[in-house]
Amino acid sequence: MSELSRRDLLKGAALAGAAFAASGSFTPAIAEGVDAVHHPDAAPPAARGRQSMHRVAFERHDTVRIGIVGTGLRGRSVLHELLAIEGVKIVALADVVPDKVLKAAKMVTDAGQKEPAIYDGDHGFEKLVTRDDVDFVYTATPWEWHVPVMLAALAHGKHCGSECPIGSTLKDLWALVDASERSRRHCLHLENCNYGYTEMLVNRMVHEGVFGEVLHAEAAYLHDLRDILFEDRDEGLWRRAWHTRANANLYPTHGLGPVSWYLDVHNGDRFDYMVSMSSPERGLSLQRAEHVADKANAKWKETYVTGDLNTSILKTVHGKTVMLQHDVSSPRPYTRHNRVQGTKGAFEDYPPRVYIEGMKGGERWNAIDEFKAKFEHPLWTKLGERARSGGHGGMDFVMAYRLIECLREGIAPDYDVYDAAAWSAPFPLSEMSVAKGSAPMKFPDFTRGDWQRRGA
Description:
Elements: H1 3-10, H2 34-38, E1 64-69, H3 73-83, E2 88-94, H4 98-110, E3 117-119, H5 125-128, E4 136-139, H6 146-155, E5 159-162, H7 170-183, E6 187-189, H8 197-207, E7 214-222, H9 226-229, H10 253-262, E8 271-278, H11 283-291, E9 310-316, E10 321-327, E11 339-342, E12 345-348, E13 353-356, E14 366-367, H12 369-375, H13 378-387, H14 395-409, H15 417-424, H16 426-435, E15 441-442
Parallel strand pairs: 1-2, 1-4, 2-3, 4-5, 5-6, 7-10
Antiparallel strand pairs: 7-11, 8-9, 8-15, 9-10, 11-12, 12-13, 13-14
Helix pairs in contact: 3-4, 6-7, 7-15, 13-14
């Protein structure tokens, strides 16, 4: 981003006129106001005659025309998946880096499609979303641009989705909910982990009662990103800065998305409140000391405030609990926990293993293999061989395929704007809780009560 655009966001300037809400991405959650801190569950006034976006079907498309904003590593990775799916046309690309958008455009033409329109500059996406030949706007920008891009898309009547998190403040999350309802267009958090092989398998096992009544689950994003955060390219250019802004769980959705499906969040239950605490910060400071020798380097002017390990406990209205963790600054193997505890047994991932009361061998873990034949999700049965050549073990392809399938067949997406907001809400709520000595923070009901009329 240019310095001008940073100043614009800091001032809360409206993007492309008064029709768009200002992004609060650079505003700490604890600065959202006294009412937001003490009563973050209080919904802003709903528009007269508001209608829920839950289970609203997409209009049917023979060909799904997509515009992509952000063509860096992640944007091009998802572009690769989309180009492999029948009935997809990439019509427009936007990025602030000419080299990256040209690489993406070449991917499109190499796949046999017409050269897409290209938009550059910090606000090139504002032109992209006005096109009449775009059905869905996908954004893979740095986090601070997710909300502006999606608000622009919704204001111009486009369905949209983004990488995670979709927003970093409650103000922004509510703005997306209201904009989606107002425009009658979907605003989705494209959470690939919901489409992981194991997550989809376990979700079927949960809902077939294999574990009995599920009372507790665990979710996490524990991923050693120290080298990536200190690179002078790609995510290293922007992601480390968030560690100077908020002592919080900066990336809650990868683990929480699947767990929300296990617990029927927004389908008969919802998150009620959460508490959060952070360890001291050490990892990034030590990484800088060991790998940035030049003390004149701008990295030495940074002060890291995000504790290395953030742990939160969430409770649902019906009393179920979730442990949620975040750590990208410590040496450790990768895990999202992905754990389930029910009245008849348990599941733990990394590696995937199952214990069901009464299984042979007594109280020990068993491999999950014997459950695959019965509980493998049909999407993976259908797509498995194609998917596994894609990103993140195949979940990226399954996610992209399912999105396009919903758009082409004119059916409702598997998740909606309320899920998107709830999965990202622990970012600001954890910051608030940590700042107030791990005080319980009420969880916003982004459905405005609709969750009670759904599911069990």
